[in-house]
Specification:
The structure is a single chain. By secondary structure, the chain is α/β, with parallel strands linked by helices. 40% of the residues lie in helices and 14% in strands. Helix 4 (128-136) links the parallel strand 3 and strand 4. Helix 2 (73-87) packs parallel to helix 8, helix 3 crosses helix 4 and helix 9 packs parallel to helix 11 (355-372). Bound molecules: pyridoxal-5'-phosphate. Pyridoxal-5'-phosphate (PLP) binds at residues 39, 101-103, 127, 172, 176, 205, 207, 232, 234-235, 240, 245.
């Protein structure tokens, strides 16, 4: 009994009112030669790592009749070691929690600290999944302000936090889709404002931190039990297909999310694969250096062509301005290059690809600039 033509739309099902008429999240997955629209790492995993993954997964396969380690102790221990080494701030596995992508980490956080009758605030434009996960968990969403140049308007943000007293405050640094990092002083001021208002949890989404000119905010965890730093292996580690995100926080936060996580949420195959990838951290972070150089080249060349570019600390660049960003997106696509229209009026976003992909992109936008005039 599949494909009953009389039930063709989910809107006709008795779904929750707040989902009615909405669209699912998703960038178009189009089959074009150059895809620079989802901030993936363009470099495939090195062959030695592919072999190591196969080995560790083979070992894990022998035990697949059993449920996996529910607490992912080995993986959390290795993630904590990576964070300790990269941020110079000591963290143990009791400070770290992992899930299927940082989107699941954020969902677990909102299930724990948000939910019906509660609210979360983000400063937009920012990562649209924060608002969507809020909706999915029944958490009210408050869209906080930004300045014209996409920096956070601190005074306005502090006022919004004082007025709305949100239960959760999101800060994305470097921010997506704009690319700019949030100064640590601003994050600290937002944390103080959130503590004075409620106190609320502050979730700092550091999905792109490895690409930043600045340091991770992990050391700010010291003495701040309501701060959570969320991370992912999808971007810098070049493992978007793995689905592995994690958080660092006070151990009480890690204990609290146990209340909502599904038992055995992280498969044995995922844990084995992530452990193998972490053995190759140095090689993977070598690609990050190449991508940072390509990111900086994109900024320079786009400005030379005559585009405006937002400062970028990420592996992507926001450029404009266009009278009609969607028309420009389409014209770039017509030249075989897929970038992202995030719905920020006048602006598009391009992920840093390989040098060849970036050259193809730059050729395309040079032509589009001529065609559209200035
Ligand atoms: C890409 C991205 C993530 C990653 O999500 P995963 O579920 O870990 O793939 C998280 N936050 C931001 C801001 C992102 O851009």
């Amino acid at each position: 009994m599949t494909g009953n033509p009389s039930v063709s739309r989910w809107d006709e099902l008795p779904i929750r009112d707040e989902l009615r008429g909405k669209s699912p999240y998703g960038a178009p997955q189009l089959d074009v030669p150059v895809r620079l629209n989802t901030n993936e790492n363009p470099y495939p995993l090195p062959e030695a790592l592919v072999e190591r993954i196969a080995e560790r997964v083979r070992e894990a396969a022998r035990d697949l009749n059993r449920y996996p380690d529910r607490d992912a102790v080995r993986l959390r221990t290795e993630l904590a070691a990576y964070l300790t080494k990269s941020a110079g701030y000591p963290l143990g596995m009791e400070n770290v929690w992992a899930a299927n992508g940082s989107n699941e980490v954020i969902q677990q956080l909102l299930q724990t600290f948000g939910g019906p009758g509660r609210t979360a605030i983000g400063f937009e434009p920012s990562y649209s999944m924060h608002a969507l996960i809020a909706r999915g968990t029944g958490t009210g969403w408050i869209s906080g302000p930004r300045n014209e140049d996409f920096t956070i308007d601190l005074a306005a943000a502090e006022r919004a936090i004082a007025e709305h007293k949100p239960d959760v405050v999101f800060v994305t640094t470097p921010n997506n889709p704009t690319g700019n990092a949030v100064p640590p002083e601003t994050v600290l001021a937002l944390y103080e404002a959130a503590q004075a208002a409620k106190p609320s949890m502050v979730i700092v989404d550091e999905a792109y931190i490895e690409f930043s000119h600045g340091a991770s905010l992990l050391p700010l965890l010291d003495g701040r039990p309501h701060l959570v730093i969320s991370r992912t292996m999808s971007k810098a580690f070049g493992a978007a297909g793995l689905r592995l995100g994690y958080l660092a926080a006070h151990p009480a936060v890690v204990d609290a999310v146990q209340l909502v996580r599904l038992p055995y949420h992280l498969s044995a195959v995922t844990q084995a694969t992530a452990l193998a990838a972490l053995e190759h951290t140095d090689t993977l972070l070598g690609y990050v250096e190449q991508l940072k150089a390509e990111r900086d080249r994109l900024v320079t060349e786009l400005r030379a062509i005559g585009y405006e570019v937002t400062e970028s600390d990420a592996n992507f660049v926001q450029f404009g301005r266009f009278a009609d960003a969607h028309e420009a997106w389409r014209k770039i696509l017509d030249r075989g290059v897929l970038v992202r229209d995030n719905g920020v009026p006048g602006w598009l976003r391009v992920s840093a690809g390989t040098p060849q992909e970036n050259d193809a992109f730059l050729d395309a936008v040079r032509e589009v600039k001529k065609e559209l005039g200035s």
